[in-house]
Every structure is written in C-alpha cells, then in structure tokens.
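Subject: Esterase-like activity of phytase family protein structure
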Amino acid sequence: MPKRRRRALIAALSTCLAAVGAAAPAATLDYVGTYVWRGDEPSFGGFSGIEISADGRGFHVLSDRAWLYWGSIDRDEQGRLRGMNIAGRAHLKDSKGEPLKPGYLGDSEGLAIGADGRIWVSFEGLDRLASYDDPDAPARRQPRPPDLPGMRVNAGLEALAIRDDGSLIALPEKSGRESRPFPVLRFADETWRTMTHLRRDPRWLAVGADFGPDGYLYLLERDFHGLLGFSSRVRRMRLTEDGPRDEEILLETQPLQYDNLEGLSVWHDGQGIRLTLISDDNFLIVQRTELVEYRLRD
C-alpha cells in the first residue's frame, strides 16, 4: 500500500475511534536489533540525522561536519539490519558552491527529505535552514529562523521533520532553561512561525524528530550522564496548533545501554511502524556509530 494511502487509512480509523469514544490503545516498542557500522573514510562518523526509505532498504545519513552519505541496507529474513552499503557521499556546500567547513558554518544537525527528493538540512552554530536539489548542488538559501531563547552555539536547530504537505517542523536542542517548554517552529511558504510548545522535562534535550506513517510526531531526546554515557527516550504525539495531543513516552533507555543516539527515522516495515535510530560517535575512538531499531506495537 502506498505510504500516503496508508497514512490516510490510519488517520481515518483514528477519527472513527475518537468519534465513538473509544480509548486509544497503549503503545510499546519491541526491540528489533542493533548494528555497529564502521567506516575508514576521515569524514565517516558524527551522524546526527537519518532518513530510511519507505521500503527500509535505502538510507541517507548526515554528519555534523556537513557530510551526507547514502546507500542501501542489507536485511535478513526477519528484517533485521545486517549491513550498510555506501553508494555515495557528498560534502555539502554553501550557496556559492564552496564546501562547508566543520564548526560554526558546517555544524549540520537535522535532516529531512521531501516527497520531491529535495534535501533539507538544519544547522546550529549559524542557525539556519538550507535545501539541496541534490547532494552535490549548492545550498539554496532559506529565510533565517527567529532567534529564540536558548538558541546559541551548539544548542540551535537540532531536530527537523517534514510533513506530507511539505511543511517543516524544527526544534532547538535547548529551550533556555529546564522549566521552559521547547518551541516548535513551522516553516512553510518561506515563512517561519512558532506553531506551539512541547513540555520539557529536566535534563532531556531534543536531538531528532520524524513524522511517522500514523501521522504522529516522534521526538528523540537525550540525557548525558558524564562517565556513565547517554540515555535516550522517544516521545510521540499528535501535533496541533493548540499543543500536543495523545502524548506518550514510548522508550526510555538506561545510561550506557546505547551510544549517543541523535538521529531518528520512522517508517512502515510491512508488519508495523519501525523506528531506526543512529548514534553520533563524536569522532572519538571510545564511541561507535550504532543503528538501533524498534517496532511499535499498539
């Protein structure tokens, strides 16, 4: 079934349940597997964004040093990830066609790919949004996002997701203080606006987001525990102008259970909704690039 038709069917069923007053079923995540990905190129690592194709066998991943990798995925008969095959990589460019340097100008964090194939990337450092017609093309400049509380170097637009209508949703990594909700920015028709706000729980930072085939927004958050490493959690919700609805925490990991998970892609694997997460190894030998997958069970 085509992805858009599946989403429409799920939305229609949800509307019918709501109309008759049926309670929404509780959802849980079943662990599918973990794959440690290794590469020899100097640009390999630091992955903070990921997009999985609708059939689960293609990928794009974005590093925080302005490199984009893409290729195919090997899976076994149970659909578990068994290999990542790189078909190409590109050093993202600025609007003049010059390769972006790591740091202030090249700190690429969020990745979203539209139905038309356009690649959208959010940057922190110099907080901005850029689009690419293809990975080797110069960036297309977009209007700058508003300056929000908490947005500063290494704490800017971290999570990026695209809706079926082509509009983009972006969240900063931090909100200014732990008691302040995360602002949710919407970008459409070359205009930014604050759509709504999401509750922020102390210590948890927004690092990745994607819209699933069920229409929910899935938000990946991270907590850092020093020598005990990282913990992660995933929230999902229906995003409305009046705030989030039907919000629930699907996953909360223990420190050191996984590496520094920063990227999230949500897709349908034919049996259910699959979540694929990727870790940022910070280009450190003591960390690793890790892909972790879960399947949603309602």
